[in-house]
Amino acid sequence: MLLPDPDELWHGRLAGMLAASFLYRDDDRQRFLNLKPDGAGSLIDRFSSLMGWAPPAGAAEWEELRMAASVLPVSRPWTDFTPADSGIKSCASLPSSFYETDGDASRFLDRLLQTESGVEFLCTGLYSPGAAPFDEEGCRISLLPHRNQALEVLVVNPVSTDVEERYPSLLHFFMRRWNLYEISEWFREFKGRPVDFALDPDHLEGRLKAFEYLAREELMERPWYLDPAVLRRRSYWLYGHTSLNPIPGFTRELRLAPSMMDWELELPMMSRMPVLACYWMLAHLFLGNAQAARLTAERALQMGGELVQALAAKILLILESPERAGISAAALRDIQETTMMCARPHHLEKGAQQSRELLLASLASKDSDANTALCPDFLWKI
User: Fold this and answer.
1) Does the residue 227 lie in any domain?
2) Which of 14, 52, 68, 188 is the most exposed place for a label (fewest CB within 10 A)?
3) What is the largest CA-CA distance in the chain?
4) pTM of this prediction?
């Protein structure tokens, strides 16, 4: 049996593993591997146009396999070990709006801003598939650029910044998550070689450990702005703000947010990594940093990515007139003041710092219990 070399587990070998693992017959396996469905390429092009960067090649690989599974012309192709009733044809795809080639980016943006997961995607490149085999609540797939073209999978604590599990590639995720020992008989019975490789559980562990060592080295060499865990840690506090309903405990997570000095250092990097621009536009808006929000949005208008440009236009409109942007000015002011008071001075530009000091002085003269209820970390900031 053929086993993958450790450096082949980034992407490109997923079809063979799925065919060997989850199809009954050799002819079905061959038929599955020979299918070359159309559509994945245009989907990736649409993603690049919307986001301003190209996703890893692993994204196209996964979409092609999903499409092939959906049209596989056999009555019962999938084994009893398949993680869903209809096999990978029911597995999660990219967010559905990426299929809307004629869709309006501003409408897609509005849908993203209505949910915490949508804001998370804008700020980190992580999306929540929400379907088998990624159907646990904290499962995320990273669509950020990757040196080895891999789709990285993270399992996060959905109510904190903690990353509980990390899988360097989609293939690694499947190998570690699915019990390969239970299906080892399928590998041993698979005599033909129409697939890239068949997995022998008796020898797989060493290959996986070698790959995990390579992945740790890659992660240490990776720029921080391409690490979705880092981006999530610093942006998590923001995820409920766009729906004007801050997440519980956001004041605690706000302490992990980058500072104004970080923003100044990152301004030249935003054209290379649009998720940075998305984070800073939203963060400055809700921190009350009007000048910084305007400058960031004006720069983002000149960047690639229809969604990034749509967000920039929306931020500029909100700064000019919240009502024209469909937002209550009073509600926006309330959440800005709450966020401003719970921030630290290094999160704020000069004008926002002055506003914060006036707000804190006003509240300090009122009932302390009310102050603490407004912002749990309030007292140490006075």
Assistant:
1) no
2) 188
3) 80
4) 0.85
Amino acid making up residue 115:
T
Q: Has residue 202 got a pLDDT over 50? A: yes
Domain that residue 289 falls in: 242-381
Cα-based distances in Å from 350 to 32, 86, 121, 276, 337: 61, 57, 30, 22, 15
pLDDT band for 95, please (50, 70, 90 cuts). low
Both tokens of residue 269?
């990097």
* Percent residues over pLDDT 70 in the chain: 73
Integer Cα distance of 200 and 203 in angstroms? 6
pLDDT digits (tens, 9 = 90+) for 319-343: 999 999 989 999 999 999 999 999 9
Asked if residue 330 is part of any domain, the answer here is: yes
Number of structural domains found in the chain: 2
User: Would 164 be classed as within a structural domain?
Assistant: no
Contact, 106 vs 53, CB < 8 A? Answer: no
Contact 91, 133 (CB under 8 A): yes
* 317 and 211 both lie in a single domain: no
Residue 281, C-beta contacts closer than 8 angstroms, at least 6 positions apart? 293, 296, 297, 300, 311, 312, 315
